[in-house]
Design a protein that fits this description.
With about 240 residues, the protein is mostly helical. It is built from seven helices and no strands. The protein has helices at about 30-55, 70-80, 90-110, 130-150, 155-165, 170-195, 230-235. Helix 2 packs antiparallel against helix 5 (about 155-165) and helix 3 (about 90-110) runs parallel beside helix 5 (about 155-165).
């Protein structure tokens, strides 16, 4: 599966931008307006993430306030909202698959008495299987994202963080699901309000490119033209 244009717009001319607040700011150039809405979107999204986590902690103690991979997701959602890696299928699927993989790998390695789950580098990391567990989680997460066509680069970090977080249990998966959905909904609002870009560019699979219509050229029969030498020869025989 190729992703050579991952960091470019998925289909820049597939949709027209939704006009709203963007045109209401005529004193700003499109470049400045884009930067402004990118700042507002990313700033608000991380606040939303923390708010959701603080709500969940009432029922699931020990979940993190936020995880680092969500910062990378904010970059994709608000700086490159029309890119294929930013679309809802990749956003939700990539994070949730990676969270499940990370938690499962950690639970599996916890059966070994050698597994320490340490988050500070030591000279015995390989002996404690921590490095092996982290590498395995990231590799499996990437593989599954490729198979399911939900590649979202921050998902690799979501899997790695799950392995390195002692309190990462099944509530970690629930937290990841809730916060990425919240970030996606916020992107639907703030990106479209800018009137400059659109999110999502598509919900599930990218639309097929329009097929080129090849005009049919009628075939005109061409009369057989005899060579000049043959014509002169025929005339001389006559």
């Amino acid at each position: 599966m190729g992703h050579s244009d991952d960091y470019q717009t998925a289909r820049p001319h597939q949709f027209n931008a939704t006009p709203a607040l963007g045109p209401a700011l005529p004193f700003l150039s499109p470049e400045i307006a884009t930067l402004l809405f990118t700042f507002i979107g990313s700033f608000g999204s991380i606040l939303i993430v923390c708010a959701v986590s603080m709500g969940l902690v009432l029922h699931f103690p020990g979940i993190p306030l936020a995880i680092g991979s969500l910062g990378a997701t904010a970059v994709l959602l608000y700086a490159v909202p029309e890119g294929p890696l930013s679309q809802p299928k990749a956003l939700v699927g990539g994070h949730v698959i990676s969270a499940v993989v990370g938690v499962c790998v950690r639970r599996l390695f916890e059966f070994s008495p050698k597994f320490s789950g340490a988050v500070i580098a030591t000279a015995t990391d390989f002996d404690s299987l921590t490095a092996v567990a982290g590498a395995l989680a990231v590799a499996i997460a990437i593989l599954l994202m490729q198979v399911t066509k939900t590649v979202h680069p921050p998902g690799g970090a979501t899997a790695l963080i799950a392995v390195f977080t002692r309190s990462a249990g099944w509530a970690y998966i629930l937290m990841v699901l809730f916060v990425v959905v919240a970030m996606g909904l916020w992107a639907c609002i703030i990106v479209n309000l800018s009137g400059l870009k659109r999110y999502p560019a598509y919900w599930w699979n990218p639309p097929s490119p329009p097929q080129k219509v090849v005009p049919v050229v009628p075939v005109v029969p061409v009369e057989k033209v005899e060579p000049v030498e043959q014509v002169h020869r025929d005339q001389s025989l006559q």
